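Action item from last week, closing it out:
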Amino acid sequence: MTRAAGLDELGRLIAELPAGRLEQVFTHAWWADDRAESYERLEFLGDSVLELAIARALYDRFAEASEGRLAKIRAHVVSRQSCAGVAKELGLGERLLEYAGHVAPDELRRISHSRNVLAALLEAAIAAVYLEHGFERIEPAIVGAFAEKIEYARSSHVDYKTELQEALARSGTQVSYTVLEVEGPPHDRQFVCAAHVAGTQLGMGRGTTKKAAEQEAARQALEALGVVPDRI
């Protein structure tokens, strides 16, 4: 199933949920009479359903990938950021507003745009459609909705810091990072970081965040060590 078809199908399944299930999906703890009546219990279940659907898709598609590589891709695909992105495309934040209680408009707007809330709404909705239709019925729609995330993680995403840490672990060596320089005004910072292995600087990176600079430093360190990160 294509991404567009997956989003359409998942959106349809959510929209056609019985009124009672829909109400629970879009009931935030702030306006629930009892916290157990909010979407949080559904979120708990939906997280596992989502992980199973993605794990099965990765297992079937990438027969040569190791357990560690599959786990990394799954973690990226089902991250809060990814889930929030899918929820936004499905308009779940807007639907939440329809079920809101007496909440101040500014606070309601903040809640409906929160990445954590959007991700929770998606997981709650997935749990609701799972309870209504079962796993096999909804699995293709879930995988389709995340197809773009799977492809990006497979072909583009490399966590160089993790790759370097794992490469060094095999020899019992560790890496440390230091900030060498911070340049520019507060609204346009540039960080320069170095990656040190066994007291030797093997890489130096520059980025708009400390994390980005460390990733580049780790990439250079891997290159210096002759290690090529896996991409599947």
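Closing note: The two ends are 22 Å apart (CA to CA).
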